[in-house]
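Q: Sequence in, structure out?
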Amino acid sequence: MQSKKNFTQKLTALLIYGRPPLVLGGMVCAIAVMWNRSLSLYVTGVFLLLISMSFDVVDGWFAARYPPHATMASLADRVMDKIVYSIIFPLVAVGMMWRLIFIAPDHTRPEVLHAILVLVLCITVLIRDSFAHFVRGCAIQQGFESETVEFTRLRTMVAAPVGALLYIHAFYLPGKGESAIYVFISWLADLPLRSYFIIEIIFLIINFGSIAGLCRKYGTLLLDEVCHEDDLLRRRILAFFPNALTVLNALMGLLAVLFTHQGLIRQAYLFLVGAAIFDKLDGALARKLGLTEPSPLQKPGSRMTLGGLLDDIADGISFCLAPALIFSMTLADYPAAGLDKPWPTVVAAAYFLLGVTRLIYFTFDRAPIPGFFKGMPTPAAALLVVAPLLMFSQATEGDMATAPFWGIFCFSIMIIASLAMNLYPVHYLHIGRFMDSNPWFGRFNMTLLLVFLFTPYFGYIALLYLLLYLLSPVFTWRIDPSRKKGQ
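A: Exactly. Output:
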């Protein structure tokens, strides 16, 4: 029995402490590949990364079950994560630039955009890890338990596979091997660029969501000692975190427009989804940190605050301006869709103005209904109007016969969504709070959307969900969003 226990403990130690040498070996192989383009070293580096990835998937479970000192093993696991990610992600950022210069010198603009996105992703991963290390260390010193936030767990699960996949793509040597193993590696390295975009955008959103989760759990705890009893100073510092998420919301909208300009409409839609997630997170974080109610020490004044103003600007960019520009750019260049050129621009401008009107009404509404929106919320409207553009884009790339139908359909949905946002007597359920109260509902639907994300039917399933939400007030006007199942 003792020998079995020693074996499991040694295996746990191997899984936890064996990853940095493997990743370091992968880095040495990558440097050699950049220097002399050795196929054998490339394959060796890929195998080292895949083994390290396998260790990363199971080491947390072993560390929690078998170590002699569970706390020490947990901390060691996190330190090893930090070391591994500090090696692999800067390495793949350099590898992407090397690939553009030496492997694909006739690169296209989307390939340059992809390399820039990988650089931003790598910086985000390192910032997130440093921030997580800091807040966990402060919390542990005060006897606070580690977080179990879904975004944080999900981020840990996908970081190693994403790093290995980017390594395979960045240092790939095309046409240099014919073995079955190399054929499999070539298949991963030659995935369509849009698939890499989708994976990286999802991972980027997960990292930002993980940062938000850490702020939500540890923010109040850390500032209690910094600010002591100075409530105004505490609120000013805490306000930085939801305001940062609000800025990320606006950034996602701008990125959606940029990707649409490059013809990557599906990736642009994912950025709008990310903007909607950050719009939910910044409000939830502000409520968690107690920033939604005015401080008793603060002088009474205008109801307008910096956070509220930033939120309105971000929503205006991501859910009013961005969908209008995406709609106009996508339809304006296709007169075969059955629409004269000025009309898409006119309808897009009308959507933008009505969306801003909706935001102004929401800001100054003095009688909100808890758990409901008066009129369709702007994030849902934005996702609704862009969803059919996915099918329109597919039609223009393939079967042009269906392009006129989808063009008219997109045009009609744009008008309907513009009006639905301003139908204030119609009350829409706050779907974010409903999902918080019913986690099974959110997990099932997120899983379903992720399954369809890499298929041609993603636009159809997204459109179906949003059309159901458009008609949902008929069924949901009596639902209490704060009421959990079984209560």
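The mean pLDDT is 81.
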